[in-house]
Amino acid sequence: MMPEQVRAESDGLKVTWGNAQTSTFPWFWVRDHGEDVASLDADTQQRKIDTFSIDGDVRASSALLDKSSGRIRIDWLDRETTEITSSRLAQAAAMELDCATLSNPEEKSYWMAGSLPDPVPTISYEKIMDSDDGALEWLELIEKFGFAVVLDMVATEKATEELAKRIAPAQRTIFGTYWPLSAEIKDHNDSAYTTQFLAPHTDSTYYYNAAGLQMFNCIQFDGKGGESVVVDGFALARKMQREHPQFYDILTKVMVPAQYIEPGVHLMAERPVFRLDRKGELAQISFNNYDRAPFLLEADEMKAFYEAYAQFNRLSMDQDNWCKIPLRPGMALIFSNWRCLHGRMGYVGKRYFYGCYHNHADYESRLRTLRAS
Prior knowledge:
Blueprint: E1 3-9, E2 12-17, E3 22-25, H1 27-32, E4 60-66, E5 71-76, E6 81-85, H2 86-92, E7 122-124, H3 125-130, H4 132-145, E8 147-151, H5 157-164, E9 178-181, E10 198-201, E11 213-225, E12 228-232, H6 233-243, H7 245-253, E13 256-262, E14 265-271, E15 274-276, E16 282-285, H8 299-317, E17 322-325, E18 331-336, E19 340-344, E20 347-358, H9 360-372
């Protein structure tokens, strides 16, 4: 958004926007966020200015807006001159999405009972592999709905890896970079490697850098049952925020530890069930009762936590909130492990998946760069 007017005042740079709203940016902040050649590397966006050498009482004498370029020239009382863009100011004032935000929260498609995605978001393997436009469409489906199904998928491990690389290199964990998933595999003593029902959960709660995306390619299926379950954790959290704000608040504050143990491995990490970003928006769900580690709060706090935790579990276990996807050869499922819970119906027979994780930062980077190009 382009400002209508800028003015140097005693307490900062005052900006009047086209919608008649005004914002005032403190002078120290304006100096620290200069975008001229001496203040910022335009290619890397690394700061050149020495923040710690700026006078705490720094003030400007004038500010001049060039509407053709959107740049604002700031003349300082110490005779220095810097520039800042109107776009930087608009992002800081929440007039535009800032560069760290992939999408406006209100533009996502949140779904649960009564609003399940119909049809399920899908895209063809060929379209993703053929062009960056196809890859962008794929990632934007994930950003909007939290998941997507890839159709006409080649049911091989090689094709899985090729598809994953359309995003970024896969994230390595104790399970490897790419991993098979089947009840017949005994490399890890984990509930995922069984035929049992798995309640909706998020993965990697025992990693501080929990996987951002998770992908399964169905290589082989010969049996009954085993439908993949996907649940929109953000939709459930928003429902809790509306209907049980006290529970929502608890789950944003209590640090819940998780652990993974096998011979030679003992991973532990902790974070709240609902992690918020610096703007107070929901950023990540971490919910896995299988892997929750022991912890103790004061009696009243512990009771309140259990009540809030149970309420979220009730929502996640309500099958009306589930999107069930019977993955078969020729189908791959990818979902946000920071937004969606996933599970599995019990099954009999043979079920062989091949999959991987992606770091959330790599996913975000790919989406930003595809949009920019």
